[in-house]
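Request: Show me your protein:
***
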Amino acid sequence: MKISGVTIFGIRGFNEERTLHFDDRLTLIAAPNSYDKTSISEAFELLLYGVTSKVEKATFSKEEYKGSYRNRHLSQSSPAFVEATFLDVGTEMQLRVEIAAADTLRKFMNGTEVSQWPFAQSMLSATKPFILQHALKYLLLVGPDERFKGFARLLGLEDLDRIQRPRLSS
C-alpha cells in the first residue's frame, strides 16, 4: 500500500488546510525547526493508530497532553482532521480521522464512518513506520537492553529475527 497524499487541517501546527502529495518512490520531508515536520508525522500516527508516540510514551500522565492534537487557534465548531489517500494494487482508499472539540476521534473510510480500519488487526503486530524525536528521546533515556529492543522494534529487526530463527536452529 502506498500513500499518494495527505490533507491536514487543525492538527497541531496546521491552522489552515494543507495538502501534501507524495512521490511514488520516495518522499523526504525536510525543513528548518518549527516548520511542522513533527506535526505531519504525528498526523499520520493519529490517523493510523489513534494516538501518537509522544502521548503513548508519556512519562507522567496522558493528561499532560490532553487537547494537544487540535490546533489551539482552531474554532471549537470546526473538526480538525487528517485525511490520506492510499493506493493498493490500483485501488484507491481514503482514510480520515476527525477530532471533535471534546478530543473524540471519528474514523471514516471512503466517506463512511467506521469503528476501526479493516487492517487494524494486522497493525497490532506490524512495526510502526514512524521514528520521531519522542521515540528517540525515550530510547536514549532507558537502559541498554531496553534501548536495543526498542531500536530493533523501530527498525523491524524483530521480524528479521523471527525469519532467521528457524534457520539458526537447524
